[in-house]
Input
Amino acid sequence: MGANEDRRGQGKADQPSATVRPERAGRAWLFMPLAVAAVFLLGAVLGGLGYFEFTPPERTCVSCHEIRASHARWSNSVHRAVSCKQCHGGSADSWHALRENAKRVFRHVADTRHDDIRLSEEQAVRMTRACQQCHQREFAHWQGGGHGTNYARIFLDETHNRTEQMADDCLRCHGMFFEGTMKNLAEPLDTRGPWRLKRPRLAGRPVIPCLACHELHAPGAPFSRSLSDREERVKKGESRRDTIGFYVRQERAHIAIDDLAIPRIVRDGKPVTVSSDPRQRLCTQCHAPDAFGRAGSSDDRTPTGVHEGLSCAACHAPHSNDTRGSCAQCHPARSSCGLDVTDMDTTYRSRGSRHNIHRVACQDCHPGGVPAKRD
Output
């Protein structure tokens, strides 16, 4: 038995050992350059992202000629003390940022024109959240006011949709940054319904973001970051309007309020005195009369009657549009006729009143004649 085992062991020892075939070794060497190239490419991508993420944007973004015009405007703007990254985000701080930067690289290579850099709607909404970091009070007021509404509340409003059919002109004031037309946004475009958003994810998105009325690269002196300075301005009733401008959807650009025209409003064929306050011109871009400029038509809120000539800002707080306590800013406890103005039958006291506070006149409450002024 031992001899047999020795012979079997000797037979195994005499067998030739397995060798690596030359063609397999050649294939392995072929993959080596590919592996090295992949590692190099990965390192270059990660290194590039790291450089753009941690190097000041003023040294990275501006190196591309496409963005130099925007940087020049920022350099003279009220926000020039705020880094690009604080508003626009980093190069790799989210999947959205990576996707957007990849698109920019593709457009840089594929497009022949590179001087038309515009914000997408997603970027505009993202910047709205960035505004909150420095303007917490204003953001809270905007969010709680009528202009903090969203796509669902505007475009799925059954009462409005049964009265007026949705059209592209709706996007002039609601959804200024929407990339598409009304047929891309909602359906059906009729007054019967039921209506739905074609992109359900838009339901909670702000329909009037901060950039609808504010141009961040507007020229002006930098804002003070001191809380005491800001509170002092609030106490004095002072407001900065450097950044205020109306975003024109067709032009994809802002027009400063000082450059907006004072609208011509008429009532019973006679011109109405319109406030010269530039902020009033901003309001009338959306709260506008019909094509004939008739006061109170369409969505016009231009004051007439006893309040003719007043600015919207005289009664409406900025951002929240709140009017509580606004009467006390001008009126004594009682009006000229001895009545408490806050108890008068107007829409200030009750929305159901037939006397709209924007157009109320003395004759509305005194059809038999206005009484003599009391001392």
The chain has 14 helices and six strands. The longest strand covers residues 245-248. The radius of gyration is 33 Å. The beta strands are 186-187, 196-197, 245-248, 253-256, 266-267, 270-271.
